[in-house]
Write a structure and sequence with these properties.
binds copper (II) ion; binds CU-O-CU linkage; 6-stranded mixed β-sheet
Length: 481
């Protein structure tokens, strides 16, 4: 059953870039108090700044941020409303804003040269779209993301259900890591070739909402909805809540049958989001660490749940935790068109290809890897330059299955713009929850099948969300027409 119309992406008349520019220059710089009149009318100012990630660090670090804070302001709007965001670029370089995971019309997708001209320094740009899906999303630039996002330019976008589930608190944790010098300054080696050809820029200092958070106060009996967003360039999180039993209720904004994580770990690749329901069932005046076990031998305590003296209630609430569906168009798997997608490249890529018996259609040499733009390939091509020929052309309003193979030695969180897709299988085995995602993690040598109805016309980016990989070839365009 595929019932979808493109009119779901209600297109109101959008101000042109020119009009946006005029508006931007006419308005004063609002600085901190920079949101507009209503929660759906927002002003974001991208600007450089300085911060100390820990008050004890001797040096402040050069960062980029929206409205002077990392993360930028949490945009919270009701499902079905129309969001209007004016972006002022006060950086000394071009930028754009992409609404990660949100099914917007193509012209609002924020991809330089593909869907819009970059926003020049001192210029403004207006984005406007209808928030059709409830869930946890985020916004970030799509220009030199490995440095712009890497320096803190991002924020959460929460689209609230018409009938949300009942909780005591709804919290957003934007997770990120930073590669700091001993003095506390960000190391300036963004986009270096080693990061590009290995696992990206993994940092050495992890923050929650831009700060180190040692303790997170909770009350016994309390029910929390915790929205986790991984804004890191490359770090994968694998969170162990130990004697707490988180229930996963949404992945990448889309509801899923509530369940406990397999193996007990909440795994979050770059750009991915997970909504949890967390019941506080331990005794007052106790502390419970949340451990990140992602990198063996490098486990550390992300934060701890700190039970304050006053319990909220005796028993665990029995309120429903299942979220209402966003009614995404269901792909017709019987009649879907199939497309192969092969990811190659990176350090030790040749070895993996050999062991999987894969031959590259186009010669893929170590010589090519000398150019940092050409370290990774999708279907034999490394994204180069700003205008890209589509790697796939999909017939509009048809169901499509992408059979993806990761013939590299590294993990890749693969993201598609403009659509959510259903993760059908991994290595030939159907997934238990047939989850909807917009970013799917692929392990080395893994094969993953995804399916979706291509109902949103335009040229859509399809790329690895390890930002150093995206910048060195692991990026392509899928045309829906
Ligand atoms: Cu989160 Cu192409 O982006
Ligand atoms: Cu990658």
């Amino acid at each position: 059953m595929s019932k979808q119309t493109t009119s779901a992406y209600s297109r109101r008349t959008i101000l042109t870039t020119g009009a946006g520019l005029a508006l931007g220059t006419a308005l004063p710089n609002f600085g901190w108090a920079s949101t507009g009149k209503s929660p759906t009318d927002i002003r974001l100012i991208a600007a450089p700044g300085k911060t100390k990630f820990d008050p004890d660090f001797p040096e402040a670090s050069s960062i980029f941020s929206f409205n002077g804070s990392i993360p930028g302001p949490e945009i919270r709007i009701p499902q079905g409303s129309i969001l209007t965001v004016t972006v002022d670029n006060q950086l000394s370089e071009e930028t754009t804003v992409h609404w990660h995971g949100v099914r917007t019309p193509n012209s609002m997708d924020g991809v330089p040269y593909v869907t819009q001209k970059p926003i020049s320094p001192k210029a403004s740009h207006i984005y406007e779209f209808k928030a059709i899906d409830a869930g946890t999303y985020w916004y970030h630039p799509h220009m030199r993301s490995y440095e712009q996002v890497g320096r803190g330019l991002y924020g959460p976008l929460i689209i609230e259900e018409k009938k949300p589930i009942r909780v005591d608190r709804d919290e957003t944790w934007m997770l990120d890591d930073w590669r700091l010098e001993k003095t506390g300054k960000i190391q300036d080696n963004f986009g270096n070739k080693h990061d590009m050809s290995h696992n990206g820029r993994v940092g050495n200092f992890v923050t929650i909402n831009g700060k180190r958070l040692d303790k997170f106060p909770v009350q016994k009996g309390e029910r929390l909805r915790l929205r986790l967003i991984n804004a890191a360039n490359a770090r994968i999180f694998a969170l162990d809540f130990q004697n707490h039993s988180p229930m996963i209720i949404a992945l990448d904004g889309q509801p899923i049958e509530p369940h406990e994580p397999e193996g007990g770990l909440i795994i979050l690749g770059p750009a991915m989001r997970i909504d949890l329901v967390l019941d506080m069932q331990q005794e007052t005046d106790t502390n419970h660490a949340i451990i990140d076990r992602s990198y063996r031998g490098l486990e550390y305590q992300l934060t701890s749940l700190n039970y304050t003296a006053k319990p909220l209630r005796k028993h665990k609430p029995d309120w429903r935790i299942k979220l209402p569906s966003n009614n995404l168009p269901e792909p017709d798997l019987q009649n879907a068109e199939r497309h192969e997608v092969l990811f190659l490249g990176g350090m030790m890529g040749g070895m993996v290809m050999q062991s999987m018996g894969i031959k590259s259609a186009k010669p893929f040499s170590m010589m090519g890897m000398m150019h940092s733009k050409n370290i990774w390939h999708i279907n034999g091509v490394a994204a180069e330059g700003s205008i890209m020929d589509p790697m796939l052309k999909l017939d509009i309003n048809r169901s499509h299955i992408l059979e993806m193979t990761n013939a590299t030695a590294w993990h890749h969180p693969i993201h598609l713009h403009g659509h959510s897709f259903k993760v059908l299988s991994r290595n030939g085995k159907p997934t238990k929850y047939q989850e909807w995602q917009d970013t799917v993690m692929m392990a080395p040598k893994e094969k993953v099948e995804i399916a979706f109805v291509a109902d949103n016309p335009g040229d859509w980016m399809f790329h690895c969300h390890i930002l150093e990989h995206a910048a060195s070839g692991m990026m392509g365009v899928i045309r829906v027409a």
